[in-house]
DNA sequence: CTGAAAGCGCTTACAG
DNA sequence: CTGAAAGCGCTTACAG
């Protein structure tokens, strides 16, 4: 490895000061055009590498934004991340990704790392049981936060998410309108705000239609394809045999449909299934999945742009409007068939 | 935000020097046990945050490792990333993830960022057409690299990947042994070493069995579920109607099976399909996918551990043994049925 | 076992 | 338009 090249290397070579070089490289109008070009040219030639640590130590801005979610490999978050990536790329921020897998200590370690690196801000889908104090602590130490998908009571930071109760009500009402009366809710957890909201939407719709809400028709837990697949046996063994499943999300719905197919029944015919999120995969699934569009792109876009606003000192309203979900009807839902 | 707390804040409060505080916080044996405890206790109390930028400026180690792949949301890379994450977490390295989407300039921007941040190393699955000089430049600037999944000629860095030619030969031979004679290869690209190797393995197996390799039976391109789904029409319209498809990867295979099902045929019965990678999803697919285990976990583990070795100054052998793939037979392959 | 001082490579007032 | 100098918050010889 050759001798380290730094600002002063350039300054010495060209007979100017490091201040001038620094300004020139950042296109400051304070530097004469000809000087600037000469400096930039030379820097390129000798392969100068800007030292962001040194700069950041001095300016206390790092150009790093943290993003932490339950699991970046989950397509739901993946779609949000893509739009965050798109938004942040334009403002030349580097983003540090992490999974917390709903482990509070993993999340804390990550926030700590961000603080140590002097990150400019963080976008988070908080782990289950995240106390407001964790977020307040971050903010007090100069790490502004915005939340996505899940809320934290008392955190006093902007949250971007869909109207979950409304969304599951859309799906449930669709099933009811097809004639289903025994509808199960498969997957999800009461431990997140999202989980509670989605279940509530289902309950609301059932009650509004005068249908009975059987506690046993709730199959909590699954949140992945694997989970939905495994839940199929349990669902099919439910007493009073529900004719439809309102699933926690698309992954659970697709897994459940696979499990139902393995049991020799035809999803979309024998059993109606709805998803939630409208992942790209929903259209490819067989049968194509009836689901609720949840505005992932929009969530990511708004969250990133709100964080950038915050970084630029603008105030961001705490109460953000919920994104209105939309029902996308495909082939996985139909009129009920009595099961024997 | 309260007054910034730094080493000297602690030093002043306790009447010791910053040198002592620095050493104590890093558990140096040079500091007396009682002093150390007093310092650590106090630091915790007042909420001291270690400034890694400052430390890294001084030590020129950042604790950051970069990882760049085609697309982190692709389950194939996701599984590799999980094991990298697992491995690096143990050594307390922070890792910066990025997608290059096979765009050379995105990859270059990322490598630049790593250099600027003083990252300790990088694990990459190089973008298509990555010149060896890009990797050499990184190494010369103090950013050691190891490659995963794809090789770059002349880069002279360790590569961790499976034996792709052997793997597709396994799948193809399995189909041949079931009695298939007209086997198509669906998906993949000749632009990566992996793509060329996998196709070669298929060709080798066909030729070894004395079967004709029809150029028209190659359907290049698809690498995702969506791609496989869309390729179904093309596959089904192939002349001489192949009875089996050896797919580029599991995603393509699953997409293709969905497309075949939509066309009214039964995958695994009317058409045999093999995947590659053995993603978690392969078992859940309907029918369960016959596929080639590709050792993702192993690739990630070995790459991370090799990079850590490199960081610690150990020499890492350039020529790494290829990971031996294994065939996992499930329900998506069977004896050929003549199509009308 | 502990402290004083230099230095990592930038940027930013300040002066000219 | 350009330069000299201080300082961001650490760590590391070096001295005691």
TrEMBL record, chains A, B:
<dbReference type="InterPro" id="IPR010982">
    <property type="entry name" value="Lambda_DNA-bd_dom_sf"/>
</dbReference>
<keyword id="KW-0238">DNA-binding</keyword>
<keyword id="KW-0678">Repressor</keyword>
<dbReference type="Pfam" id="PF13377">
    <property type="entry name" value="Peripla_BP_3"/>
</dbReference>
<dbReference type="InterPro" id="IPR046335">
    <property type="entry name" value="LacI/GalR-like_sensor"/>
</dbReference>
<dbReference type="InterPro" id="IPR028082">
    <property type="entry name" value="Peripla_BP_I"/>
</dbReference>
<dbReference type="InterPro" id="IPR000843">
    <property type="entry name" value="HTH_LacI"/>
</dbReference>
<dbReference type="Pfam" id="PF00356">
    <property type="entry name" value="LacI"/>
</dbReference>
<protein>
    <submittedName>
        <fullName>LacI family transcriptional regulator</fullName>
    </submittedName>
</protein>
<keyword id="KW-0804">Transcription</keyword>
<feature type="domain" description="HTH lacI-type">
    <location>
        <begin position="5"/>
        <end position="59"/>
    </location>
</feature>
<keyword id="KW-0805">Transcription regulation</keyword>
């Amino acid at each position: 490895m050759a001798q380290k090249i730094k600002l002063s290397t350039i300054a010495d070579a060209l007979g100017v000061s490091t201040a001038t070089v620094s300004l020139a490289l950042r296109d400051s109008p304070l530097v004469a055009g000809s000087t600037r070009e000469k400096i930039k040219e030379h820097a390129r030639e000798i392969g100068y590498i800007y030292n962001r640590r040194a700069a950041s130590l001095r300016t206390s801005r790092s150009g790093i934004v943290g993003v932490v979610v339950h699991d970046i490999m989950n397509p739901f978050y993946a779609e949000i991340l893509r739009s965050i990536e798109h938004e942040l790329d334009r403002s030349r921020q580097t983003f540090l990704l992490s999974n917390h897998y709903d482990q509070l200590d993993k999340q804390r370690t990550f926030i700590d790392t961000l603080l140590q690196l002097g990150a400019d801000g963080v976008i988070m889908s908080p782990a289950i049981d995240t106390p407001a104090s964790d977020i307040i602590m971050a903010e007090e130490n100069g790490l502004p936060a915005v939340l996505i998908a899940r809320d934290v009571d008392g955190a006093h930071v902007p949250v971007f998410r869909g109207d979950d109760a409304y969304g599951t009500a859309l799906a449930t009402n669709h099933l009811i309108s097809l004639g289903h009366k025994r509808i199960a809710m498969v997957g999800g957890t009461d431990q997140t705000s999202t989980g509670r909201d989605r279940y509530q939407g289902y309950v609301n719709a059932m009650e509004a239609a005068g249908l009975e809400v059987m506690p046993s028709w709730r199959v909590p837990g699954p949140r992945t394809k694997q989970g939905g697949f495994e839940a199929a046996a349990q669902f099919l063994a439910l007493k009073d045999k529900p004719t439809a499943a309102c699933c926690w999300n698309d992954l659970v719905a697709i897994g459940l449909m696979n499990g139902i197919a393995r049991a020799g029944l035809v999803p979309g015919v024998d059993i109606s299934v709805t998803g939630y999120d409208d992942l790209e995969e929903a259209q490819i699934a067989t049968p194509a999945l009836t689901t609720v569009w949840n505005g992932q792109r929009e969530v990511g876009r708004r969250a990133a742009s709100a964080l950038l606003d915050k970084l630029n000192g603008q105030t961001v309203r705490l109460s953000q409007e919920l994104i209105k979900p939309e029902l996308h009807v495909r082939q996985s839902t139909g009129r009920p068939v009595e099961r024997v």
